[in-house]
Amino acid sequence: MTRLGDWVEPHPHGIYVKPADAWIDPSEPAARALITHGHADHARGGHGTVWATPETLAIMDARFYAGQDQQPVGYGDIVRLGDVVVSFVPAGHVLGSAQIVLEHRGETIVVSGDYKRRADPTCAPFEPVKCDVFVTEATFALPVFRHPETGDEIDKMTTALAANPQRCVLVGAYALGKAQRVIAELRRRGFDDPIYLHGALQRLCDLYVELGVDLGELRPATGASKAELAGRIIVSPPSALNDRWSRRLPDPITAMASGWMRVRQRARQKNVELPLILSDHADWDELTATLTEISPQEVWVTHGREEALVHWCMTHQIKARALALVGYEDEDD
């Protein structure tokens, strides 16, 4: 008697699809790799053939050489690998992020990678896919994590600037996805002033623009005078918030955009004056609502608070288990 999904094998360094002889998001070099998105805990160099969305391949090439044999797969396109039918559908996490849908032997398995359910002007929205097995992340899989309205968090920056025009707001945001989303959300709220960038963010912001994401006017923060930067919003990597680079800024109001800003101690540890609870991952309610909507026979849980989500599944008569995959439970990248 075969077990549901026994043709897919979770390993610490990735998920192996046996009849396709391919790995999903392997953390070690693989001859054949299917990549959900460009963050470092899911994408790396050194693979042979790589299947990913065109945007993910472009992001991988911008960060490291993605490999000579790149196979772009658009949303909704179908690829046959051995006896497995593979398609990519949007995950709503960052630009180009995808859920990988695997169909074989009359079963459908969806490996969602990282995902969120909130609207995001920088990427295609998550699309639920009915399936037999759903592999879900669990970054914020605790009931305490309920993300506030995005617009309210974005408005904190402009409100702080209006109250302190002689200062600047320095926002720490991860280089891929979060920085661009902060900028695009500001634009969506009607903030049309130039936004200044730390140099480490320029390359990926430029790539987003090349790929069709409108970020408005961006200027380099390095070389700008204190007078020019007063009353401005500056976006930098989190590592730059408290280093020597930030000391030349006009009395910065230090902000950090992360779902982890829900945890006050994390904000205090990073000396964050203005915590912005802005996540590129689903919160507890969104995770459980997604599982209810998809209604899989089994849920495989990885990358985060697996135990709480497995328990929720069991209390809702959904078979579930935790996978011991290597990866980050943070939003770091």
TrEMBL record:
SUPFAM superfamilies: Metallo-hydrolase/oxidoreductase. It is an enzyme of class 3 (hydrolase). It comes from the Bacteria. Gene3D superfamilies: Ribonuclease Z/Hydroxyacylglutathione hydrolase-like. The keyword Hydrolase applies. Keywords: Exonuclease, Hydrolase, Ligase, Nuclease. GO terms for molecular function: exonuclease activity; ligase activity; RNA endonuclease activity. This is Ligase-associated DNA damage response exonuclease. It comes from Sphingomonas aracearum.
